[in-house]
Write a structure and sequence with these properties.
alpha/beta; globular; 192 residues; 5 strands; Rossmann fold; binds BIS(adenosine)-5'-tetraphosphate
């Protein structure tokens, strides 16, 4: 089994690179952002609660996303590995993920961070907001709040995995294919 965390600020290309990684390596893609948006689209109680936080650019409470990931792991017993996209986003989520994977006698093999400047992040998200229908991409203040949440609560997750020597960083600016080449090289070096 090979388990990968794709990490980076909002708009750094996690979703974009994830699509290419799952095609190449056959991993099961688990994106908490996508799972939450699907709950919102289906107007479930969980989705209605999450929407309040997402529309303000805030993180959804840990217990909500940890529960979603736990179910997703249980629902995919035959996966050859998981690609976690947008999760974990807090240290509490990272600790919970370690426990869940330990129960399955596995763990995280690689934590891959995408590095992108703040102005480029804002530019990309505003651009996506023109067509995505995502309310959190349309307002620059909400986008900047997401980036503040990232610095305050999410970037410490990289320090957590650095303690276990799992972290590699890749420049997330340039063409999508160039970035994918760099990302793939890191995955290949771990798979060897
Ligand atoms: P997410 O869905 O994870 O969304 P995101 O941070 O905006 O990144 P995403 O992966 O979608 O964007 P990408 O960089 O690929 O989170 C949304 C919200 O959900 C959060 O704010 C939070 O409220 C909540 N949430 C999710 N997970 C949570 C958790 N674990 N705990 C608590 N709350 C949680 O792409 C951005 C744009 O850039 C795209 O338009 C893309 O086309 C473009 N792009 C990508 N690569 C490019 C490149 N190389 N050059 C130019 N443009 C590029």
């Amino acid at each position: 089994m090979f388990n990968l965390i794709l990490f980076g600020p909002p708009g750094s290309g996690k979703g974009t690179q994830s699509q290419k990684l799952i095609d190449k390596y056959g991993l099961k893609h688990l994106s908490t952002g996508d799972l939450l948006r699907s709950e919102i689209a289906n107007q479930t109680p969980l989705g209605l609660e999450a929407k309040n936080f997402m529309d303000k650019g805030q993180l959804v409470p840990d217990e909500v996303v940890i529960g979603m990931i736990s179910s997703a792991l249980d629902n995919n017993p035959d996966a050859r590995g998981f690609l976690f996209d947008g999760f974990p986003r807090t240290e509490a989520q990272a600790e919970a993920l370690d426990k869940l994977l330990k129960l399955k006698k596995t763990g995280i093999h690689l934590f891959l961070g995408l590095e992108v400047s703040e102005e480029e992040l804002v530019r990309r998200l505003l651009e996506r907001g023109k067509t995505s229908g995502r309310s959190d991409d349309r307002d620059e203040n909400v986008i900047r709040s997401r980036i503040v949440e990232y610095h305050n609560k999410t970037s410490p997750v990289a320090d957590y995995y650095a303690r276990f020597d799992k972290v590699r960083n890749v420049k997330g600016e340039g063409s999508i294919d160039e970035i994918f080449e760099a990302v793939s090289a890191e995955v290949d070096s771990k798979l060897k």
